[in-house]
Amino acid sequence: MRDDQSWRALAGHVGHWHLRGYGLWMIVPKQGGPAIGGCGFVWPDGWPRRELTWWLLPEARGTGAAVEVSKVAIKHAYDNYGWPLVETHMDDANAAARKLVQKLGGEVIAREVFPDDKTRSVYEFPRQE
């Protein structure tokens, strides 16, 4: 990624926190070390609602990190933000994300066409204990 692209991405994430009051957190291993991904909530301009999103570096995939941090994020949204619904919008071809959503107890509540003209399933997450 070029420096100008990194700057725009960072500014966008910081701005999201200031404009919406929520955003992405960096995922850092419990034992320390560099960040291995991100998880949190976004509401891109023009999209119908906010959603839980996550990403992991390739070496962190399959470690359970995405499940662990997603559970914390979902609980935080219900308990601290007071949201009545926590959801994600998923591309049908994303098998890894679908597997994670199933582990988190996500259930399809809608099918929608998004601003990028892709049809996605909308999943609702139950409260996490």
What secondary-structure arrangement, pairings included, does this model have?
Layout: H1 3-20, E1 24-27, E2 37-42, E3 51-56, H2 65-81, E4 86-90, H3 95-103, E5 107-113, E6 119-125
Antiparallel strand pairs: 1-2, 2-3, 4-6, 5-6
Can you describe this structure?
- With 129 residues, the chain is α+β, with helices and mostly antiparallel strands.
- The chain is built from three helices and six strands, in the order αβββαβαββ.
- The strands form two sheets. A three-stranded antiparallel beta sheet has the order 1-2-3. It has a three-stranded antiparallel beta sheet with strand order 4-6-5.
Estimated radius of gyration: 15 Å
Q: Which sequence of strands runs across the widest sheet?
A: 1-2-3
On the 0-100 scale, what is the average pLDDT?
93
SSE order, as H and E?
A: HEEEHEHEE
Strand content: 25-35%
What's the count of strands?
Answer: 6
The poorly predicted ranges are none
Q: Please give the alpha-carbon distance between the first and last residues.
A: 38 Å
Structural class from helices and strands? alpha+beta
Mind describing the biggest β-sheet?
A: 3 strands, antiparallel
Helix content: 25-40%
Shape: globular
Number of helices: 3
